[in-house]
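Anyone else keep sequences and C-alpha cells together like this?

Example one:
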Amino acid sequence: MVGKSYSLVTKVVAGSASQRLGKGLSEALKCDLVQIESKRFPDGEGYVRILSDVSGETVAIVQNTYPDQNMVELFLLQDATRRAGAKRIITVVPYFGYARQDKQFQPGEAISASALAKLIEAHSDATITVDLHNLNTLASFSKPVANASVMKATGEFLKGKADAILSPDKGSIGRAREAARVAGVQFDHIEKKRLDGSTVQMTPKELNVRGKRVAIVDDIIATGGTMMKAAEQLRAQGATRVIAVCTHGLFTGGALDKLRQSFDEVHACDTLESPASTISAAGSIAAEIYKFRS
C-alpha cells in the first residue's frame, strides 16, 4: 500500500459483474450494499444509476474490468457515485483485465495494464486489486493502492483437502508457499523439462507426490491446458487426488468442463463469478480496506 489512508467504507456499490462479491464485501465490512440500476440499450451502450443516498459517504465500488463492457460500466459507476455526492471512492477491481500486458514486448505496443490503472484512478481516491498478475503494475498508480492476496483464504479452504500445494512454475511459488503455510502442508513448484520436440515432463522440483492429495494453485486459469497436463502427470507419479485452485477463473472455451474431467475438484474465487467460485475474496479485500482507515 502507498500513500495516505482513508476513512472506513460506509457503503458498497457492486457492479453487474461483481454482485456476489459486492454483497460479501458489504457483509464483511458490516455496511450497506447500495442498490443500482444497470442495463444495456439496444445499441449495446450501458446505463447505470445509483438508487441509494451516498452523499458524504466513503464508498467502495466493486466491479471487474473484464470483458471490456464491464470496464466501461466501472467508469460509469465511478461517475454516478461521485455525482451522487460520495465523499470518497475506493475502487475495488477483483479481476484486473489487461494485467498481462504489463510491459512492451514489441516496439509500438501500448502498456495496457498501466493505461488502465491511470483510467481507474482518475475518478477514484484509492484502488484495491486482487492477486494482480504482476505487482509492478501497482507502480502505475499515483494515488493510494493495495493488492489483496487470497492465499490465506485459499489455504484455509484447502485444510484437510490437500497434503501438498504446488505452483505451476517457479515464478508463482510465493502463492503456493503462503497457502501451504496456512493449510499446514508441504509446498513445491512444478518443473517442466522438454524430453523431445513434442514431449514435456512436468514434475515437482523436490516433492514426492506418491500417495498424496495434491492441489495446484495459480492466479489465473484461462484455457487450463497446462493445468490439465500437470494433473495427468501427477497422477502418473502416484498422486491419489488432484485439485485445481485459482484466484481468477476465466475458463475460456469451455475450460471448466474440461478441467473437471482432469481434476477431482476445481475451485476458484468469486473475483470472477462461475459455478466453480467456492472461495470468497471478500475477507481479503476487507482487510486491505481497513488499512485505509484514517
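And example two:
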Amino acid sequence: MTDKEKNEMLFVQVVSMFHGAALQQMGKLKNPVSDKIERDMQQAELSIDILDMLKEKCRGNLSPDEEKFLSTVLQELKLNFVDEQKKDTGASTAQPKADKPGAQTHEAAQ
C-alpha cells in the first residue's frame, strides 16, 4: 500500500468516525456503550462543525472522490440536523397531546 492510498483510507476513516458520532449524537444511532438512543444536539453540531473545518482546511488537497465523499457526508448530516431541530420545535407545540391517554411524546416513542 502506498502512502497516498494509506492517507486516502485514513481520511475516509476520520470522516466516517465523525459521521457516525454526529448520527449517534442526533439520536439516529444507538450508543454502542449504553445500547440506548441518546441525543446531544450541541455535540452533534460540534461534530458537523469539525467536518466543515476539515473540508475548509483540506480545500485543494483532496482527490475528487474524497471531496465528493466529504461533501455528501456533510450534506446528509446537515439535513438530518435540521430535521431533528424541527422535531424539537414540533415536540414543544405537540406536548399537550401527550397528556391524553395513549399519546406518546417523541422521547417516549423511542
